[in-house]
Amino acid sequence: GIDRFNKMEPKQVPSVLILPLPAQGHVSSMLKLAELLCLAGLHVTFLNTEQNHQRLVKFTDASSRFTKFPAFRFETLPDIPSDIQNPENLIKEMFAGIDRVIKPAFRELLISGREKAEEWPPVTCIIADGVMSFTIDVAKEFGIPNIAFRTISAACFWAYLCIPKLIQEDELPFKDGDLNKQITCVPGMESFLRRRDLPSFLQAKEFSDPSIQIVHTQSSKSMSSSAFILNSIEELENPMPSHIGTLACAKVYTIGPLSALLSSKKNTTSSTSLRAVDKSCLTWLDSQQLKSVLYVSFGSIAVVTAEQLLEFWYGIVNSGKPFLWVMRPDSIIGERQIPEELMLATKERGCMVDWSPQEEVLEHSSIGGFLTHSGWNSTLEAITAGAPMLCWPYFADQQINSRYVDAVWKIGLDMKDMCERSIIERMVRDLMEDRKDEFMKSSEKIANMVRSCVEEGGSSYRNFERLVEDISSMSL
Ligand code: UDX
């Protein structure tokens, strides 16, 4: 509790600096971690880029929500370019911007923090997004620990850490086009991992591919962090968390789903949206039958071509299911807006919004299925809500997430990169009609397990308590 720190000398007060990659899926989970650490009584500084901070303040109650914590403050860093319409470029551009802009500003902030110690307790621990591994060198320079927070699953992180092994076993880069070839050298995944299930950055044609280089460099650099925080659930991902800890000789705190852990400690939802949320869809959902609606959303980065959009649209309409579809205005390659005839026809069959209150949507009783791109936050939210998934992974960690949903947890179907209307129709019917009871039962079972692991005595609850203790006593 908070009183424990009041007795401590001001210089000893644990003061955490949190730095997410400036992207929705990363800001979401790390802001929830910030709120959890505030509730535990720690001093927290949350670093966002200027633009993302303005969006957060504009579209959520973040400014009021956080001002009630005396030991919380936002600080902002300069913006970096991110061209969403070209995700491959996005990665390269983002990392160039991080080195050029974010790194010097981050270091500057730590230096000035030391000089103004009487205003705010100097930082005693950095919790940085695992892809911002430059903070490790800066942490060493200031003699403080650096904890790497991964916004992806333990399985995906473990696959990244196995890159040297994959190369040594001649599995990377792919020698031919057989994507169904089994991958047997990633410990713990021997029985179900195929080439096509590896994170997309590893499915490169040659090893010099920049995205494979970035992932390899970031993951191996992050190995020298003092500890790791995983937004995941031990019971769902064992033995990956312990493999990671063993390989890195460091502590691993598996404390997810952060959304569920946070709502188990406070009764209101905590929006982290960087876009305007259209809540009208909740009223539309109220008018729908129990577990009858297909919710469609591909996260904040994935884009589709106009052709793919039509395949999805006809497949979903021909499935006969009412649907709630998130159509981010920037999500169709080459188009500035949704085709008009699509908008009109959709009105009768479903509801379309630019951006939904997704966590509330997934918890709504009329949701019977979730057509998702398998982003890790969306996957955790569906697991927590017990919503069966139809997975259309786009890039990054999504390929391995979709494989786990289908082949390991058996709470949905993995479409992979297929996008053809008759297959889409058949898989929607499979998920929400033919095998509905099977998927509802397995999803409900896992949702109950998740609920218990974030309640007192559960694995994530206990690991979070241990994290707060260790940060406070610096015994990382
Ligand atoms: C990115 C990567 O794509 C993903 O693979 C990685 O795991 C995290 O970073 P993103 O693509 O945005 O994330 O997907 P996801 O991880 O699912 O995060 C999206 C977040 O936006 C979720 O928390 C979801 O609840 C929220 N969301 C999405 C909304 O609030 N409204 C929407 O309409 C859609």
TrEMBL record:
The chain holds residues 128 to 603 of 603 of the full protein. Belongs to the UDP-glycosyltransferase family. One of its GO terms (molecular function) is quercetin 7-O-glucosyltransferase activity. It comes from the Eukaryota. Residues 15-155 form the Glycosyltransferase N-terminal domain. This is Glycosyltransferase N-terminal domain-containing protein. It comes from Kingdonia uniflora. The keyword Plastid does not apply. Keywords: Transferase.
